[in-house]
Design the sequence.
């Protein structure tokens, strides 16, 4: 597969209750309990307000998709050793069928090929059930998903959109320290059925807009993309350990989860090195860093 530079940057282009793969996420869980399962990279299975969401479903097999050398961003790679690393760098922790089973809606924070499967013909999401509702960030992505065969495509907005008693609200994301690597968003989840709120920040760095939103929203659980991936023109694309510390300081009572780890070639932090960096900052007890397949309940 080879994507044009425009497709790569702009994105033009159950599991059942008895399943032994997901005993901790069996469908009948207590009302008011948020359940988050780290799948791989930014892909999460989230139960919130009694609704099953699949976030950023990148479902390609290990080494199925791409290297930077064969793509439009070869000249952007900071470390030449990363050019020939094939992505995804690891397998999904469970079969695709189990990732998808029982999902009520898909949520895509932004259309980049390390968050959503993209084809060379400009369509996307080939492995997904096209009848399941899909939430995206803008009109361009609505058009792409409809062209890809999805029957129910909606936008999550700054004012919030309701789905089965859960409100999904778009939050600002700055996807690059130098210049944004295309549009991106976060999603803030609230529901009368939940005691707590959940904020999936998406592909963003820590910035003034994020700090302001943190103060306004006061989230109870936050998920950060924190492998510090970087490209020359755009700079660091998502959070590093300093940004994670900023989140912890700004939200001292929130549960903080570091995601988007150990899957993409242009990362500059791994789970191991991020853990060490957080230890030096005295934040080991503040940040959860799930392995692929790991489940948390809140």
Sequence:
């Amino acid at each position: 597969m080879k994507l044009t530079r425009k497709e790569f940057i702009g994105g033009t282009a159950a599991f059942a209750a008895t399943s032994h793969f997901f005993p901790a996420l069996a469908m009948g869980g207590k009302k008011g309990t948020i359940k988050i399962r780290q799948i791989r990279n930014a892909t999460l299975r989230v139960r919130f307000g009694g609704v099953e969401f699949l976030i950023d479903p990148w479902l390609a097999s290990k080494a199925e998709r791409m290297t930077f050398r064969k793509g439009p961003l070869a000249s952007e790679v900071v470390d030449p050793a990363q050019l020939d690393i094939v992505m995804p760098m690891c397998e999904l922790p469970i079969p695709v069928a189990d990732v998808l089973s029982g999902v009520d809606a898909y949520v895509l924070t932004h259309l980049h090929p390390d968050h959503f499967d993209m084809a060379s013909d400009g369509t996307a999401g080939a492995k997904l059930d096209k009848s399941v509702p899909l939430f995206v960030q803008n009109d361009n992505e609505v058009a792409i998903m409809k062209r890809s065969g999805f029957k129910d495509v909606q936008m999550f907005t700054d004012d919030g959109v309701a789905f089965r008693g859960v409100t999904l609200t778009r939050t600002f994301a700055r996807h690059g320290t130098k210049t944004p690597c295309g549009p991106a968003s976060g999603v803030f989840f609230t529901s009368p059925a939940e005691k707590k709120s959940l904020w999936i920040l998406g592909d963003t760095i820590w910035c003034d807009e994020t700090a302001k939103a943190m103060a306004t929203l006061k989230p109870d659980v936050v998920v950060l993309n924190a492998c510090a991936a970087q490209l020359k023109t755009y700079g660091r694309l998502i959070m590093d350990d300093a940004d994670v510390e900023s989140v912890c300081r700004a939200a001292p009572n929130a549960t903080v989860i570091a995601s988007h780890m150990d899957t993409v070639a242009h990362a500059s932090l791994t789970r191991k090195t991020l853990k060490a960096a957080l230890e030096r900052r005295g934040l080991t007890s503040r940040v959860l860093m799930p392995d692929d397949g790991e489940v948390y309940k809140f």
User: Anything to note?
Assistant: The chain is about 15% helix and 20% strand.
